[in-house]
Amino acid sequence: MRTGKPFGAIGWRLYRGLMRLLSVNVGKPRPNPWKPVGLTGIDKRPVTGPVMVTEPGPKGTGAVGLAGDRVYDVRHHGGTDQAVYAYAREDLSWWEAGLGIPLRSGASGENLTTEGGDVTGALIGERWRVGEDAILEVCCPRIPCATFQGWLARAGWIKRFTEAARPGAYLRVTAPGQVRAGDQVLIEDRPGHGVTVAVVFRALTLEPELLPPARCPRRSGTRRASAPEPRQRDRRRWSRD
Known about the structure:
20% of the residues lie in helices and 24% in strands. The chain is α+β, with helices and mostly antiparallel strands and 241 residues long. The chain has a single domain, classed as PK beta-barrel domain-like (M1 Pyruvate Kinase, Domain 3). The N terminus and C terminus are likely disordered.
């Protein structure tokens, strides 16, 4: 496997069939008693047939990548870097065993429920071809919020989800196209830096020491700046029950 370059014919054959879309899920508006935003689109349900995926533009409008879907907390969700949310069926099954409840596809609010691949183990910047034309780029992890906790009706869910470090991945849309259940997911390009979604999630939540030092221009007699620690409010957020 060649790192940091598109896979050749051998690489395409090796990855063909290893990951696929188990379902494509679009949200239904629901009242949101957990945030002062009125509605939530976290109730994602599998749809039949193809769904168009496009670049939604900057955050702030509620637009996301999948046609027919949207977010309502426009300050924190949606836009280019959170266009599509993917979560692995394997992780849903892991949570089923731990929580003792069934979790259908879309239960975590994901647009794409995958099978046969480690979504949280994907590299930041990795590009997936989904179906014939759509190309999605792994961008960042999902950070749990009050709506997610309320939706699953689990006290201490934010803390538990954070400690498990199985966040799934947000994806950018770098090329539009239709996606549907059963589509293969082919890794078209994989960077060589080794930074996974899981590592970024841990760095942003419970392990800020994983963050690299801030790189600022140095002047004579100045010290190198360190990466800022999470705000005190964020520390309380990760630790509260």
